[in-house]
Design a protein that fits this description.
Elements: H1 19-50, H2 54-100, H3 102-115, H4 120-144, H5 154-177, H6 184-207, H7 211-239
């Protein structure tokens, strides 16, 4: 590349340092929708196998949607809150160390870059320039691989998780309630299999893994869950 030429842009490589974080949120959203599809579908199919009355199916389905969304959101909030507290504690510790022992921290930063393959002279120069620019950011990135501005937000995580569950739960609710009673279970099975195939493909695409294997896993698992709950509902409905 000669002087004046622009550096080549690799369109297939995510150079934005926050791309990984966005991909994680997208993957979590797909998985949340997948949970909404399977858990709600399994419950309403089990109830539909026991009774053809729309009332119990609707009550069970709505209860499942509400409980599942709250559970997903609360679980994500607790998990991400713990991660956020840990990140804040690490940032506070690093800030104190920089104020109390700046020379030791400079030497530590230079050592990190030497360990990555830089010569001692280059590592020292890089460490000093980064420290002069933003010492805290340099140490957080090199030592902890976090950024102060990108500390996770538990409310965002909880909202995204609950919303994705609700989006996934809409399909089985419509599939079980809209068709005539004799078509409810078959329609729900078909709709769920198609939806799971889509979420499995998306999850594999986001993670860069083989699509076919991921689709097969999620479809077989979801179909098995529906078959088991249908059998339980059928047995209990016949017994009572």
């Amino acid at each position: 590349m000669t002087d004046g030429e622009a550096a080549p842009f690799h369109g297939d490589e995510p150079h934005d340092p926050r791309v990984h974080e966005r991909l994680n949120w997208l993957r979590a959203g797909v998985l949340g929708a997948n949970d909404g599809i399977i858990s709600v579908a399994a419950l309403v199919v089990g109830v539909a196998a026991a009774t053809s009355d729309s009332g119990p199916i609707l009550v069970a389905g709505v209860a499942s949607v509400v409980a599942g969304a709250i559970s997903m959101g609360l679980g994500e909030y607790v998990s991400v809150s713990s991660q956020r507290d840990t990140e804040h504690a690490l940032i506070a510790k690093e800030r104190w160390e920089l104020a109390a022992m700046p020379e030791q921290e400079l030497a530590e930063l230079a050592g990190i870059y030497r360990a990555k393959g830089l010569s001692p002279e280059t590592a020292e120069r890089v460490a000093r320039e980064l420290t002069a620019h933003d010492a805290l950011a340099a140490h957080l990135e090199a030592e902890l691989h976090i950024a102060e501005a990108d500390v996770v937000n538990p409310w965002h995580a909880a909202g995204a998780s609950a919303l994705s569950f609700l989006v996934g739960a809409v399909l089985p609710m419509l599939a079980i309630l809209l068709p005539p009673p004799e078509w409810r279970i078959a329609t729900t099975f078909a709709a769920v299999v198609v939806a799971l195939a889509v979420t499995g493909w998306l999850s594999a695409w986001i993670g860069g893994s083989p699509r076919g294997r991921a689709v097969l896993r999620v479809v077989v698992g979801g179909a098995l869950a529906l078959a088991v709950t249908w059998l339980i509902g059928w047995l209990i409905g016949g017994a009572v």
